[in-house]
Amino acid sequence: MRFVIIGAGRVGLRTARVLREEGHQVTLVELDRDRVEHARDAGFEVIHGDGSREEVLREAGIEDADGLGALTSDLNVNFAACSIAKHNRTWTVLRVDEDYREGVYQAYADEVDEVVYPERLGAIGAKNALLGGSIRAIADVAQHLQVVLMTVTEASPMRGYTIEEVQLPANATIIAFGKAEESMGLPLSDDTLAVGDRLAVLADFDVLEEARQLIVGETLAPEGGTA
Amino acid sequence: MITAYVMVKASSGDVGRLKREMAAADDTVEGVSVVAGDIDYIVKLRVDGPSDVKAVAASIHEMVGIEDTRTYIAMD
């Protein structure tokens, strides 16, 4: 497919790379001359110009693009680009600069099909790194609800018990189970938890730590960390 | 009569509550619009004098979930 991306900074250029790796055609639009050159050095087709202007977007081929990613750090530019693209019936993705604006644009901006707040995904990655190898956040379902993949360790209090016997807190539920080295499937009540098995748990943030202690069994802070 | 516009930057996505509170902040508030871009709302005021503008803008600024306001007085 063909995509136009406004902004060749850390978000836009990275997105362009991922799309290119998957075989898609990408045209970038960038105002800053240094960034234009940087992106051209990386082999991208780059239009030097203001992505909030119609003639610039037309030059980038918005009229027959499958999608537009308005990914600059300037919300005014991003919104203008989406408005122009929507006029051409293009699928539009808008980057917001603050988390509270995610919901506002989803609710109010008809010109915008999807809203992204890159820092949210960055925070999930940072959280995974902090929590270590036995727990991994998969998705934020809602602000207080997330799906977390937990791996049973030697220290797990529930090791040797069946799924039926695992008493998670009220606001948490096991949604998938996989034996070590095997693929995940729906949990069966008589599946037994052994070291290396993984459980996908849907949990409210308030009870996440309790669920983690039951299934993973380690304390949250790395050993030697300050109390 | 003076027309003034207050540009409002929020820090909360609670649009329903903020719109309601700003609309009810004073009798002089003529309208509240949710806008795209680096500000979130534009509030239109119709007041008797510049001092009234200040008072209404200050009451909006003090609301929970409002980060900043900038006020512009129309000259025509």
From TrEMBL, chain A:
<feature type="domain" description="RCK N-terminal">
    <location>
        <begin position="1"/>
        <end position="122"/>
    </location>
</feature>
<dbReference type="InterPro" id="IPR003148">
    <property type="entry name" value="RCK_N"/>
</dbReference>
<dbReference type="Pfam" id="PF02254">
    <property type="entry name" value="TrkA_N"/>
</dbReference>
<dbReference type="InterPro" id="IPR006036">
    <property type="entry name" value="K_uptake_TrkA"/>
</dbReference>
<feature type="domain" description="RCK C-terminal">
    <location>
        <begin position="135"/>
        <end position="217"/>
    </location>
</feature>
<dbReference type="InterPro" id="IPR036721">
    <property type="entry name" value="RCK_C_sf"/>
</dbReference>
<dbReference type="InterPro" id="IPR006037">
    <property type="entry name" value="RCK_C"/>
</dbReference>
<dbReference type="GO" id="GO:0005886">
    <property type="term" value="C:plasma membrane"/>
</dbReference>
<dbReference type="InterPro" id="IPR036291">
    <property type="entry name" value="NAD(P)-bd_dom_sf"/>
</dbReference>
<protein>
    <submittedName>
        <fullName>Potassium transporter Trk</fullName>
    </submittedName>
</protein>
<keyword id="KW-0633">Potassium transport</keyword>
<keyword id="KW-0813">Transport</keyword>
<dbReference type="InterPro" id="IPR050721">
    <property type="entry name" value="Trk_Ktr_HKT_K-transport"/>
</dbReference>
<keyword id="KW-0630">Potassium</keyword>
<comment type="function">
    <text>Part of a potassium transport system.</text>
</comment>
<dbReference type="Pfam" id="PF02080">
    <property type="entry name" value="TrkA_C"/>
</dbReference>
<dbReference type="GO" id="GO:0015079">
    <property type="term" value="F:potassium ion transmembrane transporter activity"/>
</dbReference>
<keyword id="KW-0520">NAD</keyword>
<keyword id="KW-0406">Ion transport</keyword>
Automatic annotation (TrEMBL), chain B:
<feature type="domain" description="Transcription regulator AsnC/Lrp ligand binding">
    <location>
        <begin position="6"/>
        <end position="75"/>
    </location>
</feature>
<dbReference type="Pfam" id="PF01037">
    <property type="entry name" value="AsnC_trans_reg"/>
</dbReference>
<dbReference type="InterPro" id="IPR011008">
    <property type="entry name" value="Dimeric_a/b-barrel"/>
</dbReference>
<dbReference type="InterPro" id="IPR019887">
    <property type="entry name" value="Tscrpt_reg_AsnC/Lrp_C"/>
</dbReference>
<protein>
    <submittedName>
        <fullName>Transcriptional regulator</fullName>
    </submittedName>
</protein>
